[in-house]
Every structure is written in C-alpha cells, then in structure tokens.
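Customer escalation, tier 2.

The customer says the design service returned an amino acid string that "doesn't look like it belongs to this structure." They asked us to rerun it and document both sides in this ticket. The original structure tokens are below, unchanged.
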C-alpha cells in the first residue's frame, strides 16, 4: 500500500496557522523584538518604534491574552500605576523564532554596512546561529534533508 499524498491530509488543526494567528502581524514581532532587547514599557516602545498607540495597545493585549507576555505594575514617584511587559516561559520559547527571522533578514535584507543587531552567547560573546538537528543527533546542513511528515495529530481529509 502506498502512503497518502500531502493532498490527502487535512490542515484544519495546523499549529503553524495557529502560531501565525498569535504572531502573524508585523507589529507583533516588532513588539517582541523590543521586549527581547529589554524595552518593556509602553511609552518607550511607542517612541522607539513609531507604532500607533492603539495598534501597540492591541498587540500587547493580544500577547498577554495568549500567555506570551505578562503585565507587571510599576509606579514612578508622583505618577499613577502603569504596567511593563515581561516575557513568560511561553514568550521566552519564541527566542529561536526571532533569531531565525533575524538570521534570514541579516542574510538577505541588511544594509551594506551590516545588520543593526546581533545575538550573542552571553558567556563568550560569540554570535548565535540556529542549526537543524534531528532527535538522533544528526546535523542537517542542507535544508532539503528536512521532510515534513504527518504527526500524531494529523487527520486524513474527509
């Protein structure tokens, strides 16, 4: 018996599609870039990025609602209580995604003088880059070696 073709599988429960429902808008990734670089307060983000106030409010609320960020109160002397935004464990797990996007952008979209930000190992200072490894420990140097296959949640199309 032959294996079903990719067209035979339903993608109604696709996790890439679900992830893009949380992250799939430019400003959301810009907000995450800011938070990963240490900018956690609304006004600081708005000033640095130029994101319209309502768009920033919506993106932060969506990231909090989806458990990527949490709000922490702070108060400047004589001012009302405000909130800053901190990564949750779910948010920290997005670091490889941001690094992969940065690597791709650095390779294809950087200015002639180079990329504006680099990611480095805190201990030794060496630049980071992502690599693909299978669970048996093989290092994949050619992305053509990667093969999508149905997972345990895959369903055949009706």
């Amino acid at each position: 018996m032959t294996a079903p073709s990719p067209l035979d599988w339903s993608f109604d429960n696709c996790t890439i599609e679900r992830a893009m429902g949380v992250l799939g808008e430019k400003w959301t990734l810009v907000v995450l870039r800011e938070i990963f670089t240490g900018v956690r307060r609304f006004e600081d983000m708005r000033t640095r990025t130029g994101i319209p106030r309502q768009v920033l409010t919506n993106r932060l609320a969506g990231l909090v609602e989806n458990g990527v960020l949490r709000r922490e109160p702070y108060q400047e002397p004589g001012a009302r209580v405000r909130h800053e935004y901190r990564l949750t464990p779910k948010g920290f797990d997005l670091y490889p995604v941001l690094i992969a996007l940065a690597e791709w952008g650095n390779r294809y979209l950087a200015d002639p003088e180079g990329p504006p930000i680099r990611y480095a190992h805190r201990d030794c200072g060496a630049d980071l880059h992502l690599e693909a490894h299978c669970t048996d420990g093989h290092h994949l140097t050619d992305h053509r070696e990667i093969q999508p296959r149905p997972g345990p949640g895959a369903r055949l199309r009706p």
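Tier 2 assessment: The sequence is consistent with the input. Residues 95-108 form the longest helix (14 residues). Residues 10 and 158 are 8 Å apart (CA to CA). Sent an explanation to the customer and offered a walkthrough call.
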